[in-house]
């Protein structure tokens, strides 16, 4: 068991997970099927929220109570959340430009944008992983426990698993192939990356789950399970080749929701903790007295192994075909690739 989902709260916790999973799939469909939906979710809504965020911090700087006690200000004030929100949203806008052939997306050089923005998003998470490892291990060197309290009031347990997963994330960047082979679907609903097959999706999902499990533990039931499975589910059943667009859309939408309503997953009947918190609760005012980091370690090793194996497959295939896996598509002829290309 990875999460503390049992007892009288289990039904509410599973209902919360299902609501998030279904809502993300539906929101993704609205955003991808119409220009109006995409413009609302990734241009209009972020603009409104940016004004809201600025107002909160201006109000807090002036000591205004409504701002100082605002959920976003209290629970979501770390650099990572804002970096992830705006990086994911930038990816969504760029993907819309590519699929609708807007502005300089008409130029061939812009086709490498998906690789660049995904790599940036991965590096943001890798940086957060290394930060947690440094904080946890530095406490250990000083003769303390590896627990450290984040700026958002969450106890994190940093260690070697963060380093292993950070390395897996770096390898995951090199598991993206065919950087320039980006297409628009015939109906212009999707930006397609056919060379991003199930191998990359598996490597990414396991790595990213471990990232959320170790660094966003109080949120990982949702952002580490529901948020990862929603785009993968859509890509598996009706949106072949569109996984990276699904991922960006659902990530951006979830980040906006979580930034404004963090207590949905932090407190109350829908909140879920991982087994890491062996005391059975997470209270920023109470230093944890016991810990269960076994799952974090095992998943980190799994993430690293999977990414090494996928990269080895890519290098082997590129050698057999005699091509560069980043300037050319190397999964031509595979089931995933061919199904995606039939939509291009």
TrEMBL record:
This is Integral membrane protein. Keywords: Membrane, Transmembrane, Transmembrane helix. It comes from Limosilactobacillus alvi. The chain crosses the membrane at residues 6-27, 39-59, 79-100, 112-134, 154-179, 219-239, 294-315. InterPro entries: DUF5692. Signal peptide: none annotated. It holds the Pfam family DUF5692. It comes from the Bacteria.
């Amino acid at each position: 068991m990875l999460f503390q989902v049992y007892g009288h709260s289990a039904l509410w916790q599973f209902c919360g997970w299902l609501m998030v999973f279904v809502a993300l799939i539906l929101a993704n469909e609205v955003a991808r099927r119409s220009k109006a939906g995409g413009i609302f979710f990734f241009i209009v809504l972020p603009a409104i929220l940016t004004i809201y965020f600025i107002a909160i911090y201006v109000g807090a700087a002036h000591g205004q109570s409504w701002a100082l006690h605002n959920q976003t200000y209290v629970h979501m004030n770390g650099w990572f959340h804002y970096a992830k929100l705006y990086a994911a949203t930038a990816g969504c806008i760029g993907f819309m430009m590519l699929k609708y052939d807007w502005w300089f997306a008409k130029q061939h050089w812009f086709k490498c944008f998906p690789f660049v923005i995904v790599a940036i998003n991965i590096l943001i998470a890798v940086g957060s992983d290394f930060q947690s490892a440094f904080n946890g291990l530095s406490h250990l060197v000083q003769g303390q426990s590896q627990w450290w309290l984040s700026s958002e009031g969450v106890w994190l347990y940093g260690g070697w698993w963060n380093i292993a997963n950070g390395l897996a994330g770096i390898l995951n960047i090199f598991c993206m192939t065919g950087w320039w082979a980006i297409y628009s679907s015939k109906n212009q609903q999707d930006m397609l990356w056919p060379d991003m097959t199930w191998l990359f999706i598996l490597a990414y999902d396991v790595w990213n789950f471990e990232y959320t499990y170790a660094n966003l533990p109080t949120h990982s039931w949702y952002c580490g399970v529901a948020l990862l499975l929603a785009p993968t589910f859509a890509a598996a059943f009706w949106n072949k080749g569109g996984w990276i667009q699904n991922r960006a859309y659902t990530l951006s939408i979830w980040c906006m929701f979580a930034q404004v309503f963090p207590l949905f997953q932090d407190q109350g009947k829908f909140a879920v903790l991982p087994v890491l918190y062996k005391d059975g609760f997470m209270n920023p005012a109470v230093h944890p007295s016991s810990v269960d980091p076994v799952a974090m370690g095992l998943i980190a090793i799994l993430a690293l192994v999977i990414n090494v194996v996928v990269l080895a497959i890519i290098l082997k295939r590129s050698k057999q075909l005699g091509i560069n896996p980043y300037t050319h598509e190397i999964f031509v002829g595979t089931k995933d690739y061919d199904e995606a290309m039939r939509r291009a």
